[in-house]
Amino acid sequence: MPTEEHYGFILISDVKWWEKLRQRAKGSHSIHVFVRRNLVGPMEAEKLLFYVKRPYMQIKGVADFVERVAGEAEGLWERYGGETCLASFEDYIKFLGGKEKATFIRFKNFHELEAPIPMKALKKVLNISRIPRGGKYISREVLNQLIT
User: Fold this and answer.
1) Domains of the chain from N-terminus onward
2) How far apart are the C-alpha atoms of 133 and 147, rounded to whole Å?
3) Strands 101-118 and 31-37
4) Contact present, 32 and 105 (Cβ < 8 Å)
5) Residue partners of 15: CB distance under 8 A and separation at least 6
6) For the whole model, what pTM was predicted?
7) Cis peptide bond upstream of 42, omega within 30
8) How far apart (Å, rounded) are the C-alpha atoms in residues 37 and 32?
9) How confident is the model at residue 4 (pLDDT cuts 50, 70, 90)?
10) Model pLDDT for residues 62-116, shown as the tens digit of each residue
11) Pairwise CA distance, residues 140 & 123, whole Å
């Protein structure tokens, strides 16, 4: 069980991957994977929030965190590649850009927010000027302030 300070984790996505995730979520898949280059990502969390970069600059989706699996890129693909938004192993290798390690952030119950959370609200609640590239943990209290 995550600590109160690690209740949620904000992941950063570009528009291209956000759209692929949205399309995949419309299918019959129950588990999804967010792929990160290198060994980065939340170790524990209850909720994942998907912040989509320019031009949106908003949290546009939420999901339940299942687990973080990190290690050798090829082995991760063999086990969980079908849960990603990537169409093939070749696309995955291209995405990794030569990195040999990867992190798969597995999640379920993904849904798009009816009212996305703008960066202006994030700045106010989190007291930050931008979301760190590696993502950011947030508490249950902060999540509740953002979602309601």
Assistant:
1) 4-138 (2.30.130.30)
2) 22
3) antiparallel
4) no
5) 52, 53, 54, 55, 56
6) 0.94
7) no
8) 17
9) confident
10) 999 999 999 999 999 999 999 999 999 999 999 999 999 999 999 999 999 999 9
11) 17
